[in-house]
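can u pls check wat happens w/ flavin-adenine dinucleotide
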Amino acid sequence: MTRIDEDYDVIVVGASLAGCTAATLLGRHGLRVLLLERASDPAAYKKICTHFLQPGANATLRRLGLEEALVRAGAQRNAYESWTPFGWLSWPEGAEAGYNIRREVLDPMLRKRAAETPGVTLLLGHSARDVIVERDNAGERIAGVRVETKDGGAQRVRAKLVVAADGRHGKLGDLAGVPATETAHGRFLYFAYYQGLELDSGGRSMAWVGDPNAAYCFRNDDQQTLVCVVPTKAKLPEFRKNLEQAFVTMVEALPHAPKLATARRVSDILGMIEMPNHTRPVSARGMAFIGDAALTSDPLFGVGCGWALQSAEWLADAVAPALLAARADASTRSSAHDTSLAAGLAQYSAKHHAELSQHHKLIADLSPGRRFNALERGLFRGAIRDEALALGLQRMISRLAQPSAFLTLKTLLRVAWVNLTKKAPRATGPRATGVVTSATRVASISQVSEPAGVFKG
Ligand SMILES: Cc1cc2nc3c(=O)[nH]c(=O)nc-3n(C[C@H](O)[C@H](O)[C@H](O)COP(=O)(O)OP(=O)(O)OC[C@H]3O[C@@H](n4cnc5c(N)ncnc54)[C@H](O)[C@@H]3O)c2cc1C
């Protein structure tokens, strides 16, 4: 029967994006980390994800030493051309892009990095089934977990800090008495991978920001392009009746639609219907939550992977000094250690809130699938006409700039001025770059005119 050491500095539950990042960085700080993963295959990966990594995560990937490896593995920069009901919006010059890389490649790479990090013990096929609660003068805290081992045994393991990185459907929060709050989501999502898919944007990805339906095509590694539709639930009966037909019909109705018929579909059509947003306190009862376990935002906005990596990094940096001090003085369990760990957790909570709460609020507001309001319509119209507005909007949508830094009075005045004085650009198709398939065809395509509003959903 598997025996696990009984005491660690940190137990991380879940060895996916958030958990592997946290374990790697905590291990590098010199801590002893137990990383538990219920899947037993080291190549396991999250299948229901469209893996658009926002540029905010580039620095974390670099710090993990993975950015170059991802590029070598075929990761694609994810600048994209967007259709909006008001015209085509091109990725602005100078806007930083992130990466598209399939989870099949990304997840095992991150897991290997964690497993190879001195101090980290990765146990595959091991599930956290419950939490251990301990009571002291300061009150109750989560002091460890009960593990179901790969061979079906059970064991209790303790640590100074338990980190839940167990994802959207994880149970650790509920078991610890820290439930998530759920808010409504009004869309569903289906996607499939294609090889040899021509896009009128050439090598670039494309997005269709419908009002309220949406779609995207993301270039990925292995010459695979992910084609995804995100309609409101009004279209659900059609998809339930005949998934393949509804999927293809919706894609082919897009302005400058991808040429599905000339490409080869290399996957099933995968998807998810119920995708509510979840929020919970990111630290409570002496325990921490990272990635989707802390905050699950609407997948349409492509933020979860980047935020999983970033939140793990914020946590590791905030708590490592206190955990190291406690480790150096392991003979005593002093209340000073508890106080400094609590301060580290409070620092992590504050950082998480400062970086993500405004973005999540905007996302959750659009999530039920409502139509754009006057401000949003004005912003898109303005960004299509004005490079400065396009750059500002792109930085906010890429989560590089806080909404409060972009949606200022100055921006609103510029939106009004631009919409009153500037004409819409003549090029009414996507800008083609980095041609992948049909060079001559794509080179002239941005001249083709497209009446706005063809795809209303
Ligand atoms: C349809 C869809 C499309 C998406 N598209 C995008 C996108 O384009 N871009 C983007 O940024 N985000 C996207 N996301 C979100 C993204 O998939 C998540 O935000 C991301 O996977 C979160 O990573 P995580 O490490 O927190 O959790 P997960 O990747 O969910 O990993 C949780 C891990 O914990 C393990 N686990 C769970 N319970 C236990 C337990 N008790 N014991 C041990 N192990 C356990 C699981 O096996 C798993 O490995 C999408 C999500 C959905 C649903």
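The pocket of flavin-adenine dinucleotide is lined by residues 13-19, 36-39, 46, 48-52, 127-128, 165-168, 170, 189, 272, 275, 291-293, 299, 302-306, 308 (CB under 6 Å).
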